[in-house]
Amino acid sequence: MIEVMLQTECPNGTERIIKRAAEGALKQQKAGGDISVLVTDDDTIWKMNREYRNVDRATDVLSFPSCDGDAIAAAPDGFLGDIAISIHKAKAQAEEYGHSFERELSFLTVHGCLHLLGYDHIEDGERQEMFALQDKILNDMGIKR
Fold first, then answer.
1. Tell me: the pLDDT tens digits for 31-71?
2. Is 29 helix (H, G, I), strand (E, B) or coil?
3. Helices then strands (H, E): number in the chain?
4. pLDDT for 70-79, tens place per residue?
5. Helix ranges (DSSP H) in the chain
């Protein structure tokens, strides 16, 4: 189950976009499990980033896996983890990158899901793998830049 909580005012269709992107990421990875997604504002995600990562700025997406490890197919209780997305960053980045809000929100959701599944982008090789996978998932869903 993909649970989406809208904590702030969001464009129509936000919940649908997130659920579709999360389901697409899990399906492509042949993974199962539940995910909780909080859609919030810049101030809230800034506080979360500061509290949980010691980074004192707003960010676009945060992921909180329920388990640590490589390529987690599903946590023992079926809960993969939580994702927080800044709706303000999603809107601004869509405009900055010149693509649709749907594409940006889908990208952030897929990115967060891959983190829950054990992917990371700290090292260059990991980054290339994760970003190629994100592009493949979005392309397979018909969501182009």
1. 888 999 999 999 999 999 999 999 999 999 999 998 765 44
2. coil
3. 5, 4
4. 444 545 568 8
5. 14-28, 42-53, 87-97, 101-116, 124-140
Question: pLDDT digits over 90-109, tens only?
Answer: 999 999 999 999 999 999 99
56 C-beta neighbours (distance < 10 Å), count: 9
Residues listed for the chain: 145
Query: Integer distance in angstroms from the first to the last C-alpha of the chain?
Result: 27
Whole-angstrom CA distances from 96 to 1, 13, 78, 90, 101 are: 32, 21, 36, 10, 11
Looking at the DSSP bridge assignments, the partners of residue 12 are none
Kindly report the pTM of this predicted structure: 0.90
Query: How far apart, in whole angstroms, are the C-alpha atoms of residue 53 and residue 48?
Result: 8
Supply φ then ψ for residue 63, to 5 degrees. -125, 140
**Cα-to-chain-centroid distance, residue 1:** 15
